[in-house]
Structure formats: C-alpha cells, structure tokens
Amino acid sequence: MRNMFLLILGTVALSSCVKEAEQEVFAPKFVVEGVIEESGYPVVKLTHNIPKGYIINKEQLENLIVRWATVKVYNDTEEEILTLVRDDEVFPYFFYKGRSLKGVAGRKYQLEVKYGNVVLHSETEIPVYKPEIDSVGYRLLP
Known about the structure:
The protein has helices at residues 2-16, 58-63; strands spanning 30-35, 43-48, 70-74, 79-81, 83-86, 94-97, 108-115, 118-125. The chain is α+β, with helices and mostly antiparallel strands. It has a 4-stranded antiparallel beta sheet, with no helix packed on it. The protein has a 4-stranded antiparallel beta sheet with strand order 4-3-7-8, with no helix packed on it. The longest helix is centred in the N-terminal third of the chain and has 15 residues, at 2-16. The protein starts with a helix and ends in a 17-residue tail after the last strand. The model has no long low-confidence stretch (mean pLDDT 86).
C-alpha cells in the first residue's frame, strides 16, 4: 500500500512540473531583396516570411512568392516599373526585373513596392569606389 501511495505521489509531482511553452504569435511580413549594380538593371525579389521551424511543401513554398505587386525603381531623373519574370533555376522563381534603367555609380536610387494597401519604401546608393578585399579566411566555430 505504501509503495502504491509513493508511486501515485511521484506521478502527480512529476506531471505537475510540466509546463507548456508559450506559443509565439507569428505576424507575416514582406521580405524584399533588391539589387542594382553599376551598369546593371535592378532586380527585386519579393516574398513572405514563415515561422522558424515551419515545414512546408513545394506548393506552399511557391505561395510565399509575391507576384502581383507594383515595383518601381527611380532616381532624380528617371523611373521604371519593373516587369515580373520567371526563372526556374533560382528561388524565388518569379522576381521583378528592370529593362531600361541602369545603375550609375554615385547615384541614389529609391524603391517603392505597392501590394494592396501596403506600400514599402527603400533607398540605396551605388558607391563610386569599389571596396578592395585584402584577404579571405575562415575559422571553425563550435
């Protein structure tokens, strides 16, 4: 009888110590990756983020790509609305690419993305001097 009482008491004590982790509230956001290089055309990749550790299949992965946005790149003198193109060799498969506005060193460029009632803005400048790389190395981290 005493062993049975200790077993029940131990089970209750161990089960009462288990606490469930609080669920983090996930708020989806836009992920914007834009590039404009000297003498190059602008390229903008637009997707949504996903929660850490979330497992998805290929169809769900493709749904993360934002396809129906209006993407505009402009500077003081010219502007261009980028065209949606598809390339199955990269991810995201759909991205926005310019065809007339080329990057010039020393100029500032603005990016405007409109998707529904969301408007995103960004600004960058192409450096006049290219950075020099003195050396390249690596180190192992635990």
